[in-house]
């Protein structure tokens, strides 16, 4: 459920007309709903209510906007970060360091140093050399780093190949069958406090079976590690729960179904469970608002050319992802159309042969379920300004990231003397 509804024939986000935002800010623009964020946090927390003190660490990569992070932090969420930049963003937004988990395969010594200084809750290590580097950094600072190893369980998540992370050929984690050896080596490294196990098998999962298979392996590993003398106190089960993009496709499992499975599978583990939801929290809370530049007739269907492009919303080009495209003020007629952007790439295509509202030049359209992996993946390709972002709460709204002027983009370059002379 989201809070993008039609009132008197025009789309509103909560109590604010989308047309008013477009008139004030221009297009394209990302629009987020506070009420939807709050509802999704509540639904996810309720799904885990049978668990004792779980840590719900929002996957910052899904949407790192400071206002979004601050909203989620005030709702009690922590943060899962994968870079030093995300770590500093989360802390700047008010998320306490003791609710932050640092994941990612390429942590640098400097990023480790900053995380130790801030006092984060856990490092999710992804390789033995990373453990050795963190040991050296912790020793140099006189600190002990709380760590877990991310395990690669070789489970096919059944999702898009580019967002699958738990198969043996993926770059993430250490192989399951090497875990006991890796943990034994980590225990001997000074400066490390080996406290947990972590797993994450992919994103936009629409079936609970792969998750359950991975969690069963984690449970067996915890038992084996304790048998080898390790004091395992935490288990990070990752994120990845899918959201409905295409209404024609079956609904993904609900958070309630997910929570029931987790509760059943983890019974008796005697650990603090941790979760890294991203898309399921922010996906439906955002829409990309765009204006139709013109409509031109194609060979089979008209091309609806909008002012949003692949640099604003990369998912359709990168993943062949489906986003519902709605007219902000629909006239009532529907027809097949191709929806494309102005970037000079054939890949700048949002939909082909899509049954959708008939629109004309200057009409507004909304790309739905764009709150996750939307603005965060935007670029300035074709020298286009980064997309602004707006947060709505009831009848109030604010620009929470302004559209930078093109002049600022140009000013970021410098011309060497030997070129200028």
Automatic annotation (TrEMBL):
<dbReference type="InterPro" id="IPR009006">
    <property type="entry name" value="Ala_racemase/Decarboxylase_C"/>
</dbReference>
<dbReference type="InterPro" id="IPR002986">
    <property type="entry name" value="DAP_deCOOHase_LysA"/>
</dbReference>
<dbReference type="InterPro" id="IPR029066">
    <property type="entry name" value="PLP-binding_barrel"/>
</dbReference>
<comment type="pathway">
    <text>Amino-acid biosynthesis; L-lysine biosynthesis via DAP pathway; L-lysine from DL-2,6-diaminopimelate: step 1/1.</text>
</comment>
<dbReference type="InterPro" id="IPR022644">
    <property type="entry name" value="De-COase2_N"/>
</dbReference>
<comment type="subunit">
    <text>Homodimer.</text>
</comment>
<feature type="modified residue" description="N6-(pyridoxal phosphate)lysine">
    <location>
        <position position="61"/>
    </location>
</feature>
<feature type="binding site">
    <location>
        <begin position="276"/>
        <end position="279"/>
    </location>
    <ligand>
        <name>pyridoxal 5'-phosphate</name>
    </ligand>
</feature>
<feature type="binding site">
    <location>
        <position position="373"/>
    </location>
    <ligand>
        <name>substrate</name>
    </ligand>
</feature>
<feature type="binding site">
    <location>
        <position position="279"/>
    </location>
    <ligand>
        <name>substrate</name>
    </ligand>
</feature>
<dbReference type="Pfam" id="PF00278">
    <property type="entry name" value="Orn_DAP_Arg_deC"/>
</dbReference>
<feature type="active site" description="Proton donor">
    <location>
        <position position="344"/>
    </location>
</feature>
<dbReference type="InterPro" id="IPR022643">
    <property type="entry name" value="De-COase2_C"/>
</dbReference>
<comment type="function">
    <text>Specifically catalyzes the decarboxylation of meso-diaminopimelate (meso-DAP) to L-lysine.</text>
</comment>
<dbReference type="InterPro" id="IPR000183">
    <property type="entry name" value="Orn/DAP/Arg_de-COase"/>
</dbReference>
<feature type="binding site">
    <location>
        <position position="319"/>
    </location>
    <ligand>
        <name>substrate</name>
    </ligand>
</feature>
<keyword id="KW-0457">Lysine biosynthesis</keyword>
<dbReference type="Pfam" id="PF02784">
    <property type="entry name" value="Orn_Arg_deC_N"/>
</dbReference>
<keyword id="KW-0210">Decarboxylase</keyword>
<comment type="similarity">
    <text>Belongs to the Orn/Lys/Arg decarboxylase class-II family. LysA subfamily.</text>
</comment>
<dbReference type="GO" id="GO:0008836">
    <property type="term" value="F:diaminopimelate decarboxylase activity"/>
</dbReference>
<protein>
    <recommendedName>
        <fullName>Diaminopimelate decarboxylase</fullName>
        <ecNumber>4.1.1.20</ecNumber>
    </recommendedName>
</protein>
<dbReference type="InterPro" id="IPR022653">
    <property type="entry name" value="De-COase2_pyr-phos_BS"/>
</dbReference>
<keyword id="KW-0663">Pyridoxal phosphate</keyword>
<feature type="binding site">
    <location>
        <position position="315"/>
    </location>
    <ligand>
        <name>substrate</name>
    </ligand>
</feature>
<feature type="domain" description="Orn/DAP/Arg decarboxylase 2 C-terminal">
    <location>
        <begin position="30"/>
        <end position="371"/>
    </location>
</feature>
<dbReference type="GO" id="GO:0030170">
    <property type="term" value="F:pyridoxal phosphate binding"/>
</dbReference>
<feature type="binding site">
    <location>
        <position position="240"/>
    </location>
    <ligand>
        <name>pyridoxal 5'-phosphate</name>
    </ligand>
</feature>
<feature type="domain" description="Orn/DAP/Arg decarboxylase 2 N-terminal">
    <location>
        <begin position="44"/>
        <end position="282"/>
    </location>
</feature>
<dbReference type="GO" id="GO:0009089">
    <property type="term" value="P:lysine biosynthetic process via diaminopimelate"/>
</dbReference>
<keyword id="KW-0456">Lyase</keyword>
<feature type="binding site">
    <location>
        <position position="345"/>
    </location>
    <ligand>
        <name>substrate</name>
    </ligand>
</feature>
<keyword id="KW-0028">Amino-acid biosynthesis</keyword>
<feature type="binding site">
    <location>
        <position position="373"/>
    </location>
    <ligand>
        <name>pyridoxal 5'-phosphate</name>
    </ligand>
</feature>
């Amino acid at each position: 459920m989201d809070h993008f509804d039609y009132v008197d024939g025009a789309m509103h986000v909560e109590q604010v007309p989308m047309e008013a935002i477009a008139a004030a800010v221009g297009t394209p623009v990302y629009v987020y709903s506070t009420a939807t964020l709050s509802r999704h946090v509540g639904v996810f927390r309720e799904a885990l209510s049978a668990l004792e003190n779980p840590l719900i660490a929002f996957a910052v990569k899904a949407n790192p906007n400071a206002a979004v992070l601050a909203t989620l932090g005030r709702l009690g969420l922590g943060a899962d970060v994968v870079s030093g930049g995300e770590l500093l963003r989360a802390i700047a937004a008010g998320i306490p360091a003791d609710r932050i988990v640092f994941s990612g395969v390429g942590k640098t010594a400097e990023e480790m140093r900053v995380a130790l200084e801030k006092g984060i809750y856990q490092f999710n290590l992804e390789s033995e050399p990373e453990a050795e580097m963190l040991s050296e950094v912790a020793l140099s600072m006189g600190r002990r780093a709380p760590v877990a190893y991310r395990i690669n369980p070789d489970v096919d998540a059944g999702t898009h190949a580019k967002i699958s992370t738990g198969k043996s050929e993926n770059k993430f984690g250490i192989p399951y069958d090497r875990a006991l050896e890796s943990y034994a080596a980590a225990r001997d490294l000074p400066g490390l406090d080996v406290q947990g196990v972590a797993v994450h098998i992919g994103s936009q999962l629409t079936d609970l079976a792969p998750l359950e298979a991975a969690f069963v392996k984690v449970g067996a590993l915890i038992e084996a590690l304790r048998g080898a003398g390790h004091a395992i106190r935490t288990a990070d089960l990752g994120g990845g729960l899918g959201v409905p993009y295409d209404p024609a496709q079956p609904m993904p499992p609900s958070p309630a179904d997910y929570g029931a499975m987790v509760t059943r599978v983890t019974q008796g583990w005697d650990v603090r469970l941790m979760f890294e939801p991203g898309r399921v929290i922010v996906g439906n809370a955002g829409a990309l608002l765009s204006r139709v530049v013109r409509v031109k007739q194609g060979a089979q269907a008209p091309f609806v050319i909008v002012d949003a492009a692949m640099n604003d919303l990369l998912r359709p080009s990168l993943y062949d992802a489906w986003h519902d495209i709605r007219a902000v003020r629909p006239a009532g007629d529907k027809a097949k159309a191709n929806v494309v952007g102005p970037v000079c790439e054939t890949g700048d295509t949002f939909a082909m042969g899509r049954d959708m509202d008939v629109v004309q030049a200057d009409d507004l359209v909304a790309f739905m379920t764009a709150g996750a992996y939307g603005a965060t993946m935007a670029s300035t390709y074709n020298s286009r300004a980064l997309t602004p972002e707006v947060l709505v709460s009831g009848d109030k709204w604010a620009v929470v990231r302004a559209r930078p002027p093109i002049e600022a983009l140009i000013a970021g370059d410098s011309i060497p003397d030997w070129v200028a002379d």
